[in-house]
Specification:
Elements (H helix, E strand, L loop, with lengths): L47 E7 L18 H9 L1 E3 L2 E2 L5 H10 L28 H6 L4 E5 L26 E5 L10 E4 L10 E5 L6 H5 L1 H15 L5 E5 L22 H22 L6 E7 L38 H4 L3 E4 L8 E3 L3 E2 L3 H9 L15 H4 L12 E5 L5 E6 L2 E4 L20 E4 L15 H21 L7
Parallel strand pairs: 1-8, 1-9, 2-11, 3-12, 4-5, 4-8
Antiparallel strand pairs: 2-10, 5-6, 6-7, 9-10, 13-14, 14-15, 15-16
């Protein structure tokens, strides 16, 4: 089914044939690819892909970004062996919408979710017509697995326990992980299982009601790591895509006994140092399989830290969280906010032998750019029947081999309704509404009539409003914002074009 989605149509809802005009299966061009491999397999230069995607980890949670008491030697080694993007963005400051953009290369406003988080009882889920990283890579012969949190849909009565709610319907061959964040009372630890039927066909339940099972929650990082390593070992002879969305450091925090009480930073440090150890273990498994120079590793987080809880001494669900929240510094605010701290996250690309080590790239990029870049590396054609919002950033990663000049960075900061609250063009960021779960407006007000404007490469904390002195720039950025909103609304989502 995934291959058929890659044909180009002027109408996204037009029925898709199983063959192209030449009589071949859609997604194929000939019986062999340019490397001589059978059609549908990755070329000889296409790398394995590993994507680490943490939950609520801030820019300042890492040693290489200046944290003085959290040890992250393996993650920092990724940056040393590859490229560290100092201006790396996610489209949404919350979970489901951010993950949607990572996997599809599309802004959250195109998802049809209606909200930035899909709860376990929500009807909506990732639409089956969306094309994910996994689906695209499978057309080139990749094996695909997800090891960690899904949170892009959950089978329930509102969606008639749809098979389309979970990862196997979206290009993944196997999965071990949670359906939603582990703090939901109905959170489950699931695994793909050909003979299983819970909660739907093709899956089985390992544990239910996770907040009441501290031992299971404390094992989540380790379980994801072990499953990912097993997947790598089993697929070392074929190209693979491993998506590893760790549950942590989302509240509540849990670390295994091996790491509990070991970090100077306390429990948050324990959690981060266990994740760091997992990154090291997975890199070691790549090295032992002889795949180091044929594997691209990408490391990031779904949004900034949940600073809404940084001053909470007693919470019914999480307890005392004052020391359990990470760092967005030097940026303002965090998760749930369209200030920089909600959207600016770590961003590392490591591919030894291809990406120059110890590279620091200050040009802004985002998770939207991952799908176009990975598809280009694997020889997957971008779909033409929908908007793809990211860019192919190979000119940043491998400038000697890819000379094209990238267009100026234009980026839209989505909020709870999955529509923009701010826009960035080049180094300039304009807010048209202030959005923060903290309720703090930091002394500012913003609207379309009186927007805020910051030069965020000079003013990292968004302190000095420059709108009054940049009237023409504000006007032009407002035109871009309006045009983007109009285009998103006119194209709609697959949910409202059925």
């Amino acid at each position: 089914m995934a291959c058929a989605l890659f044909a180009s149509y002027s109408n996204a809802d037009e029925p898709k044939s199983s063959t192209d005009p030449g009589g071949r299966p859609n997604g194929s061009a000939s019986s062999t690819d340019p490397s001589g491999r059978p059609n549908g397999s990755a070329s000889s230069t296409a790398p394995n892909i590993i994507v680490f995607f943490l939950d609520d980890s801030g820019y300042g949670d890492y040693a290489h970004n200046g944290n003085p008491t959290i040890r992250t030697p393996n993650i920092s080694k990724l940056a040393q062996d590859g490229m560290n993007f100092t201006q790396f963005y996610v489209t949404s400051p919350a979970c489901s919408a951010s993950r949607y953009s990572l996997l599809t290369g599309r802004y959250p406003g195109r998802s049809g979710f209606g909200s930035w988080v899909i709860g376990p009882g929500a009807k909506q889920h990732l639409h089956p017509k969306e094309i994910t990283l996994a689906e695209g890579l499978k057309t080139r012969g990749y094996q695909t697995g997800i090891f960690g949190k899904w949170h892009l849909g959950n089978p329930n009565q509102k969606n008639n326990f749809s098979q389309d709610t979970l990862p196997l319907a979206h290009g993944f061959d196997e999965w071990l992980g949670t359906n939603v964040s582990h703090d939901y009372s109905s959170a489950k630890l699931l695994q793909s299982d050909p003979s299983g039927s819970q909660p739907i066909k093709g899956y089985s339940v390992i544990a239910k009601n996770l907040p009441s099972k501290a031992d299971v929650c404390a094992s989540l990082t380790e379980r994801s790591t072990e499953a990912a390593i097993s997947f790598i070992k089993r697929n070392k002879e074929t190209p693979f895509f491993a998506y590893i969305p760790f549950n942590m450091p989302h509240l509540g925090l849990y670390a295994s006994d091996k790491f509990l009480g070991k970090s100077r930073r306390g429990l948050l440090g324990d959690v981060m140092e266990e994740i760091d150890d997992s990154v090291g273990q997975i890199r070691q498994s790549i090295a032992e399989a002889g795949l180091t120079e044929n594997t691209l590793i990408i490391f990031s987080s779904d949004n900034g830290p949940w600073i809404r809880f940084q001053d909470t001494a007693s919470d019914k669900k999480y307890g005392d969280t004052r020391l359990h929240v990470g760092y967005a510094q030097p940026f303002r605010d965090g998760k749930g906010s369209t200030w920089e701290g909600g959207h600016r996250v770590p961003g590392i690309f490591c591919w030894p032998g291809k990406i120059t080590p110890n590279s620091i790239e200050q040009s802004p990029v985002s998770t939207l750019d991952i799908l176009p870049t990975v598809f280009a590396l694997a020889g997957v054609e971008l779909p033409k029947d929908r908007s793809i919002d990211g860019r192919d950033i190979r000119p940043y990663l491998m400038p000697q081999a890819h000379k094209a000049k990238l267009p100026e960075f234009e980026f839209y900061y989505s909020w709870a309704d999955n529509m923009p609250s701010a826009v960035r063009v080049g180094p300039w960021k304009m807010h048209t509404r202030i959005a923060s779960q903290t309720g703090n407006n930091y002394g500012f007000t913003a609207s379309r009539d009186t927007p805020l404007l910051f030069q965020v490469e000079q003013d990292l904390g968004e302190r000095i409003n420059r709108a009054g002195e940049q009237a023409k720039r504000v006007e032009k950025m407002m035109e871009s914002l309006t045009a983007f909103e109009t285009q998103v609304q006119e194209e709609g989502s697959f949910w409202n074009t059925q």
